[in-house]
Structure to design on (234 residues):
């Protein structure tokens, strides 16, 4: 069954440290998409990145980087030189079609709460 | 402003009240979603609408009643709720079915609901 696991419930680091948030997924599909979203205290989930299953290149966006490895079914997210504003809950998600005739939907991990201390 | 607007931001209601949550998007999306987010629980998908048609109802109690009059507006009508229904209710939109979700969702800021 399709599933997304974020084993780290909460991570706390001091500002300027690097931190990696883990995401492991399970899917029977050969074509799928993976996402990361950020949920700051204000509540809305903010889209960070989308990656399709055929593109295993790592991606870097400023202080954010993502490591996609199909061999280990992982899509980890690293924040370099963390800042207090990075404090939020981060969700990993996988798109899947629940049934052959159904629409694709996102399957969500439980989220990792990241606390950056000044 | 994310492009998806939810009102109200906060709502306190008694168990016998009737209230409605509103969601609006002008992103040209044709799919809209209601999610419930309770403390220490994963995001729970409640309802999905594609092109105004309801395509998913994830065993949500009948005290929650969705309405989608057009592709830009989504409502969640609430009546006789229970204290355990207190949560953050998030609306999202995406491109339409079947593969719209593959391009990700845009979320609103949510309505923080407290049932007393």
């Amino acid at each position: 069954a399709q599933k997304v696991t974020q084993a780290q419930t909460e991570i706390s680091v001091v500002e300027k440290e690097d931190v990696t948030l883990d995401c492991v997924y399970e899917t029977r599909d050969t074509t799928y998409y993976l996402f990361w979203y950020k949920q700051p205290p204000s509540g809305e989930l903010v889209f960070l990145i989308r990656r399709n299953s055929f593109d295993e290149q790592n991606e870097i966006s400023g202080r954010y980087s993502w490591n996609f490895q199909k061999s280990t079914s992982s899509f980890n997210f690293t924040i370099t030189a963390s800042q207090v504003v990075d404090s939020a809950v981060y969700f990993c998600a996988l798109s899947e079609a629940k049934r052959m005739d159904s629409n694709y939907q996102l399957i969500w991990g439980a989220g990792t709460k990241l606390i950056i201390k000044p | 402003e994310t492009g998806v607007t939810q009102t109200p931001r906060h709502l306190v209601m008694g168990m016998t009240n009737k209230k409605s949550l509103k969601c609006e998007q002008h992103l040209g999306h044709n799919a809209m979603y209601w999610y419930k987010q309770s403390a220490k629980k994963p995001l729970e998908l409640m309802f999905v609408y594609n092109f105004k048609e309801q395509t998913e109802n994830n065993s949500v109690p009948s005290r929650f009643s969705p309405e989608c009059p057009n592709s830009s507006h989504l409502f969640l009508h609430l009546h006789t709720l229970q204290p355990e229904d207190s949560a953050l209710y998030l609306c999202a939109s995406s491109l339409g079915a079947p593969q719209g979700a593959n391009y990700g969702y845009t979320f609103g800021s949510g309505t923080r609901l407290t049932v007393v």
The mean pLDDT of chain B is 91. Residues 1 and 108 of chain B are 8 Å apart (CA to CA).
